[in-house]
Amino acid sequence: MNPFCQKLSKSDGGSAGKSFAVDYEKFTLDNGLQVVFHVDKSDPVVAVALTSHVGSAREKEGRTGFAHLFEHLLFLESENLGKGGLDKMSARIGGSGANGSTSRDRTNYYQTVPNDALEKMIWAEADKLGFFINTVTEQVLAKEKQVVKNEKRQSVDNNPYGHTSYVIDQNLYPADHPYHWQVIGSLEDLQNATLADVKEFYRRWYAPNNVTLVVTGDFEPGQAKAWVQKYFGEIKKGADIPRMEKRPAVLTQTKKLYHEDNFARLPELTLAWPGVYQYHPDSYALRVLTTYLTEGKKAPFNQVIIDEKQLAPRVGMYNNNSEIAGQTMLSVRGFEKTDLNKIHSAVFEAFARFEKNGISEADLNRIKAGQEVAFYNSLASVQGKGFQLAQYNIFAGDPGFATKDIENMMSVTVEDVQRVYNQYLKGKPYVATSFVPKGQVNLVLEGSRKASVVEEKIVEGAEEKFDLTADASYPKTQSTFDRSQEPAYGKSPEISVPAVWEEKLGNGLKVLGIENREVPLVQFNLRIKGGLLLENPDKVGVANLLAESLMKGTKNKTTAELEEAIDALGASISVSADDEDISINGRTLARNYAATLALMQEMLLQPRWDAKEFDLSKQRVESQIKGQKANPNSIAANQFKKLLFGEKHILANNILGTEASVKAITLADLQAYYQNNLSPVGAAFHVVGALDKKAAVAPLATLDQNWKAKEVTFPTYQIPAAPATSKVYFYDVPGAKQSVLRFGYLALPATHPDFYSLSVMNYILGGGSFASQLTQQLREGKGYTYGISSSFSGSSVPGPFVIQSGVRSNVTFESAALVKDILKNYGPGFTAQDLDVTKGFLVKSTARSFETMGAKLGMLSNISAYGWPVDYAKKRQQLVQGMTVEKIRSLANQYVNPDKMYYLIVGDAATQLQKLENLGYGKPVLLN
Predict the structure, then answer these.
(1) 9 pLDDT exceeds 70?
(2) DSSP character for 768?
(3) Burial (CB count <10 Å: 0-12, 13-18, 19+), residue 242
(4) 70 has a pLDDT exceeding 60
(5) pLDDT (tens digit, 9 = 90+) per residue, 210-257?
(6) Rounded to two decimals, what is the model's pTM?
(7) 216: exposed, middle or buried (C-beta count within 10 Å: 0-12, 13-18, 19+)?
(8) What is the DSSP letter of 607?
(9) E strand spans, 750-877
(10) 480 CB contacts (<8 Å, ≥6 apart)?
(11) How many other C-beta atoms can be found within 10 angstroms of the C-beta atom of residue 717?
(12) Other beta carbons within 10 Å of 769
């Protein structure tokens, strides 16, 4: 075992000055597989992560997207788990759901499971590496191409500004550079990929000597090592893997490009400079630099672009550091019809201001404090630790690089920050992209040329056909033992619900907490009842603006001074509003909890009511509302609320308001809402972290004394009934590459006796990811979508049952008809096997229900908001165990009737609207 100074599982509250290391054990099998273990007994769960050192950078030009394609293929079938075997097993064992991700340089596969399923997971992961490729057939490949193309449509083609990265990378890196193309690849390359191409790629890169396996959590290393040897040991080593040589981007001159974006409503300027590779010594100072330049009231970019010139609501800057090269990115989305030349000039004015004033020691220290907290937070779950250990092992050559990583982070000097600015940004050439709405080329940067962007044409019936109904036959890979038998469970973990303490302050504020010392952090949440529910229907948007105003200084601190005080503690405090609450959320080092709470209380009890900040906030929100009008998913969310609640209910509104309502809101409206509605009565404070009850409650004394109780009257609104008959509604987005679907109706509050039973019923329908019928039929069976789900969401007021997805535009009707058919047959077709899978998942997944601090905070919030018992998770287990097939069928017949729902589609009306009449619900209503 590696020596360490501070174990993650036994935090003392994070005393300053202590060195930090993550305890681990590493060994390598004869075939080259590198294995890293980290033991953490805090919860009865284990995370397993298999990471292959292959991303898009290992691809060939003309055959791009293969690494990402394999991220999909490896979940479908393997020789010993069978078709859909991994997803079926994940459901049975109560796993978090098998998942993966692809970057330029690596592909990982991961899942957190109860610790009695560790041998099963090691068996399954070995099948990916040695017993998989024979299962990939022409039909399997054809279907998965459709799924990946749907993912690209959803994340890139149907998204405002979705092509920005493509344009940047095409011009920042030369054609023969591995970062010239996108991770997701091109639609043309994906379509042209042959089975032989795909198998060649797998055999080259998915060899044990190019893979790291990480196991973290509550397990016995000796036994786990034997399992790893058993299941992985006989897999043959591959050819030697060449090392990727560092190859930074080199620009000899600035390049300017523009694109008219079909979905954009606001102009956006993006600049990219050649940067440094991951863990480069200068990467730490560059991270401080980009943070200082753009984050907070004192940031030069905030001062010039947002406050003084009022050209944009926010500025984003970050470093994208990869294995062989990196880039420093700056993005500014301007207000409507803002000339991007003005933003460009302001950017360099802000740089000049930094050159003149530099960064102070105090500013450097507050940024480091925030980075320290973020670092610990990334290690707060066993999965987070697993990701980091794999990342360090592959790209730093040492799983224990955490010690050096945080040392490098904390050793950055003022001189370092100034030096990297001069070396990488000052006077250096860059790539600039201007993305503007259609018809607004007058806003682009002078000297820009038109970017080459490939826009897909959606043609009816153009997609390749495939048939997955027959079981494929393929040769089995030889093994020294019978791998077809799934390993048995280990010893069942003891499920213990976290110990909850409760307190009630004199002013009526409820306080609930959980002591948790895995990392030296504390997270807290103050939930105040109100939100949109207490707004004036004629001036919607007040609660959201009030939440923003509470972050804009206090009686005795300007916005900049408040931000500095929070940052100096390494803390974060945010305020937000939703339909029913205004919430203050915070995170801090345990040693700084009392000081952080003092600032939170000052924000709540002594608002500054700064008129200038208020005007800037209004500008920001108006711009956000305009931006939503361009985003098909935002359109769908806002339109669906209107259908669910009807015109007269306050919850039919967007929490942001409308452009007209926001313009009409005054600072006096915010002050009236604050005076009348913010009360400790009915409010609750939740805290989780490395401190006991006494230490958690003591700093609340000021809040108890100075926040006076008052009764708040909530208006009564009639809850609309579900539709008596189904109706189709269509919102037109001309040229949409996907149709966004929202089907459902207003169902139940979380407090209804049937509420959790409906979650149980919904698991096989659409709540169980790859175990669900919606996913299996629309994604896996047809390739219509990248993802689809169904859910019941309620709170103290009824929430919707909703089915949501983005489907290929030219199968809009086919997708809707298939969903309707699935709903119609769900209750009558529900089987005993479906029930067994549901019970297996929901009972076993309890082991990982409260692993993270966020999950524990959510548990406390449920207890305080709905009056649920402290052990509600155990009571739910009993409900699941007692569920029957007949009960599920009865619930399905009562609550998921396809003939009593709203069917909302956001897509291209010219090509898709008319066909939807064939659903049988009359002529669709065009909403715009």
Answers:
(1) no
(2) S
(3) exposed
(4) yes
(5) 999 999 999 999 999 999 999 999 999 999 999 999 999 999 999 999
(6) 0.86
(7) buried
(8) B
(9) 785-792, 800-808
(10) 234
(11) 16
(12) 20
